[in-house]
Amino acid sequence: MNLKSICTGSFSIALLTICSWITIPFTIPFTLQTFAIYLIIFLFGGKKGTIYISCYILGGIGGFPIFSNFQGGFPVLFGATGGYLLGFLASSIFLWSTENFWSNRPQHFFGISILSLFLCYSFGTFWFLWINMQNHISFSFFQALELCVFPFVILDLLKIKFAAHIGKQLKPFI
Ligand SMILES: O=C(O)CCCC[C@@H]1SC[C@@H]2NC(=O)N[C@@H]21
């Protein structure tokens, strides 16, 4: 690990933390985490991005209050939003594994990012259903989509567009 990786990693974890703290409360909160995830992957690539995102998740699970609503600790993983945290990791691994397709063609980044966003939503939705089932609260699949996916789609797509736009401006300086 060199000095540049330490700096880019610290920047990524700080960015994700700040973007988690900017929250509009809801059953599943609105946050800027998706903006941070896609900017990190765009700027630093799939491998490093996935490592930085994993460090952020491990730091939060380890107890630092760096998740939405200043939450932290292992129990957050078994709360309503735990699936999205796993989804962030799954999305970044997906972006990493498809990097050859989008890295030299930034116009493809948006399309692949949409697929990875829906992967993240899948983790978030099924985890939400499963956690609630453990607590004997049942939601239909459509009700879960109404809480976990529909409110976020447009804003998350805008966040990805914005991340790719900012990423293009910043990339030459990295
Ligand atoms: O507890 C956490 O830190 C995770 C919160 C996850 C919020 C999800 S991410 C995708 C979707 N878009 C949002 O703005 N909020 C949800």
Q: From the coordinates shown, what is the CATH architecture?
A: Orthogonal Bundle
Instruction: Give helix % range.
Output: over 70%
Mean pLDDT across every amino acid position: 96
Which percent band covers the strand fraction? under 5%
**Element string (H = helix, E = strand):** HHHHHHH
Keywords: Cell membrane, Membrane, Transmembrane, Transmembrane helix, Transport
Pfam families: BioY (PF02632)
Organism: Faecalicoccus acidiformans
Subcellular location: Cell membrane
Task: Write a short abstract of this structure.
Belongs to the BioY family. The chain has 174 residues and is mainly alpha-helical. It contains 7 helices and no strands.
Key traits:
single chain, 174 residues, mainly alpha, Arp2/3 complex 21 kDa subunit ARPC3, 7 helices, binds biotin, transmembrane, cell membrane
Structure description:
With 174 residues, this protein is mostly helical. The chain has a single domain (3-173), classed as Arp2/3 complex 21 kDa subunit ARPC3 (Orthogonal Bundle), CATH 1.10.1760. It has seven helices and no strands. The protein has helices at residues 3-21, 33-61, 82-97, 99-102, 106-134, 141-148, 153-170. Helix 2 (33-61) packs across helix 3, helix 2 (33-61) packs across helix 7 and helix 5 (106-134) crosses helix 6 (141-148). The longest helix is centred in the first third of the chain and has 29 residues, at 33-61. It is globular, with a radius of gyration of 16 Å. The two termini are 16 Å apart. 35% of the residues are buried. Bound molecules: biotin. Residues 20, 28-31, 33-34, 67-68, 71, 81, 84-85, 152, 156 line the site of biotin.
